[in-house]
Design goal:
extended, 4-stranded antiparallel beta sheet
């Protein structure tokens, strides 16, 4: 339930065992190792420069593995990928792991993957080229003239091309005057495939006419040169003949190419059986790269590596045992520099730990500040429950959370947190009588007495009561923030800040609250007058001493502004009205879904119930998703904007120890 104390340490290791020591430190994951720019020892001893040897061979191998893994995943079992959506990483025991990373044959698999991938890409390119050529030849398949004969002759030119359908009549009417003729071969959508024949001496005039008609010439020689076969040319025996004959040639080649492509795909499918091995190899070399980069970035001499690092105070003894196992390495404590930024780690008890998700989203507190997790946890869970505000939705979330916790891999703090919040949603929903909105009243009236027995009040019938509840809760949380800051400053022996920045506000705000309650007739007028006068004392102290730096003119000005900021507390309290709004909207939408479902139930012949079921499931499912998102975001906003600023100083740097990272597998320790 606190920020973890950190120790600054210095490890000096001989080059011969530095790599082995780093491997153990990475496996244990307890040290945040500083690079040469961050390390204090580099500033005190400039001759300790980082080696900066870039492990290019490891980087290149990782790049190759990344491409191979992405390639083979395409050819893996799709049903297995669907099943593993929530658990994408495979559990691998340490013996299998070591066997795989020491298998030198895997490098040959990488080579084979790259060859097959290149072959598949080449085959696909050839296939698309053949398909394109066939598509271009199709309009000319009825042409009886061999394509190699279409072109310049002794006195005339024969030209093939495509022309918009609306331009054919125009060309036919004008080309005869130029001693030419045009023949329609085929029609494709809005174009005609045509042959144009004209005298060479009229070339300029005919070309001008054809351009005006948007005539697009077709060059069969160029078209057939696009074929993937280097031997296929217009003047070769294989590339001659009519368009129909050429189409047949290309279709035969396309069939051959499809078979070749399938052969390569089969090879890739066979290689995909080794996908797990490549993933293990990737994770191994990824961790090796991290170690090598850490080593090359650390200060070093010709024969030693200097590791300046942070470790949790409680892990120092464990670190001593690790380093003592290496005969040419030594460990010592060092004192942090005065202006050095200490990394921050937070640890909480099991019930509170899931709410660390919210703290980490906000950012780590300063090392001298407090961990807000234990303070925000009850408020967050309760406020989330109020925003969701439905016992039925809460039950669904509890069931979903339990199932996901069992199936999902990785950090499950968020799921556990949502599970706790769901319990509060059930509690709030039961107290306000909301079970999937008014589904009990509308469809299960026999359970109505039980619902009323559990219910405290209905917010839709007594909105002012709900208004009062959320305002009281908001005020309590804001006062809690001031109390936390007050106690923390006392522990830090900053008595001036505790008195003039927190205690004065606690006294003044609560005195003003009691004065307001007396005006409303809740408490006696005499008590209200007493506290009204008492509020003057902290108000004066806020003006005089809430700002304690600089000249008195600046102090009084800032003090007056601080006193004026009392109105901001009113705005902060009113922000908690969003709890009421979200809760009532969630219940209102649920009731609307039930109303629509009730109307469909009236459809005769059993059709109504068939329609009602998907309406209930779809409507409540949609409302649940929207309500959960709204509850999470707005509850988090109340913590970040209203609660945390009262006591928390953020901006701390998170503790990031060197540790093993696994992208594809889970390593099972033996």
């Amino acid at each position: 339930m606190a920020i973890v104390p950190m120790a600054k340490i210095l490890i000096v290791s001989h080059n011969s065992e530095a790599a082995g020591l780093l491997e153990v430190l990475q496996r244990e994951g307890i040290c945040q190792i500083l690079n040469a720019q961050q390390a204090t020892v580099s500033k005190d001893l400039p001759e300790l420069a980082a080696k900066r040897d870039r492990p290019k061979d490891i980087e290149e191998l990782l790049n190759r593995l990344t491409k191979c893994i992405a390639f083979l995943k395409v050819f893996g079992d799709p049903t297995k990928a669907l099943v593993n959506m929530l658990s994408p990483r495979v559990l691998v025991d340490e013996i299998s792991y070591q066997t795989t990373v020491s298998d030198r044959q895997l490098l040959k698999i990488i080579d084979r993957c790259e060859q097959v991938e290149a072959a598949i890409e080449k085959a696909k390119s050839r296939r698309e080229s053949l398909r394109g050529t066939i598509q271009e030849l199709l309009p000319w398949q009825s042409l009886a003239t061999p394509v190699e004969e279409i072109g310049p002759l002794a006195r005339t030119i024969c030209q093939a091309g495509m022309m918009p359908a609306g331009q054919l009549k125009y060309v036919q009417d004008n080309i005869s005057e130029l001693g030419g003729a045009i023949q329609q071969i085929a029609e494709t959508e809005n174009h005609y495939a045509c042959l144009v024949v004209y005298l060479k001496e009229n070339t300029n005039e005919v070309q001008k006419l054809l351009r005006a008609a948007e005539f697009a010439p077709v060059n069969f020689a160029a078209m057939l040169a696009l074929s993937p076969s280097a031997a296929l040319r217009i003047n070769s025996a294989e590339g001659t003949g009519t368009a129909a004959e050429l189409i047949k040639q290309h279709e035969d080649k396309l069939s051959e190419q499809e078979l070749l492509l399938q052969k390569h795909i089969d090879s890739a499918t066979k290689l995909s059986k080794d996908l797990l091995k490549l993933e293990i190899l990737y994770d191994h070399y990824w961790n090796l790269l991290n170690r090598e980069q850490t080593k090359s970035a650390a200060p070093a001499t010709q024969r030693t590596v200097v590791l300046e690092a942070w470790v949790k105070e409680k892990d120092y003894r464990r670190l001593e045992k690790i380093v003592s196992a290496f005969g040419a390495s030594s460990l010592s404590r060092v004192k942090p520099a005065e202006d050095e930024e200490i990394p921050v780690e937070i640890e909480n008890k099991q019930i509170v730990r899931p709410f660390e998700v919210i703290t980490r989203l906000y950012g780590m507190p300063q090392p001298s500040n407090v961990d807000p997790t234990i303070f925000l946890a009850p408020f967050f869970a309760l406020f989330f429950g109020i925003c969701l505000g439905d016992a039925g939705y809460g039950l669904i979330m509890v069931v979903a959370t339990v199932l996901l916790v069992k199936k999902m891999q990785g950090d499950k703090k968020l799921l556990w947190m949502l599970g706790v919040c769901s319990v509060f949603a059930i509690l709030v929903g039961a107290l306000t009588g909301s079970w999937f909105g008014n589904v009990v009243t509308a469809f299960v009236p026999s359970l109505e007495p039980l619902r009323k027995r559990l219910m405290w009040f209905d917010p839709l019938e007594k909105p002012l009561m709900m208004l009062g509840v959320v305002l009281i809760l908001g005020y309590v949380q804001l006062m809690s923030g001031l109390v936390i800051a007050f106690v923390h400053n006392l522990r830090m022996k900053d008595y001036a800040a505790a008195v003039f920045e927190q205690l004065t506000w606690l006294v003044m705000l609560n005195s003003l609250l009691l004065l307001g309650l007396s005006k409303a007739g809740v408490i006696s007028a005499d008590v209200g007058k007493l506290f009204g006068r008492l509020a003057v004392v902290p108000a004066v102290l806020i003006v005089l001493l809430s700002s304690r730096q600089g000249g008195w003119g600046g102090r009084l000005g800032l003090g007056a502004y601080n006193l004026f900021s009392a109105v901001f507390y009113l705005g902060d309290v009113l922000s908690y009205l969003r709890l009421m709004a979200l809760g009532m909207v969630s219940s209102g939408l649920a009731m609307a879904v039930n109303l629509i479902a009730g109307l469909t139930l009236k459809i005769p012949y059993g059709i109504g119930i068939l329609i009602m079921i998907p309406v209930l499931i779809g409507g409540h499912g949609f409302n649940l998703i929207l309500s959960v998102l709204g509850a999470f975001v707005h509850t988090m906003r109340l913590q970040f904007v209203e609660f945390f600023p009262k006591f928390l100083v953020g901006g701390g740097k998170a503790f990031e120890p060197l540790h093993k990272e696994f992208k594809h597998i889970y390593l099972e320790r033996t």
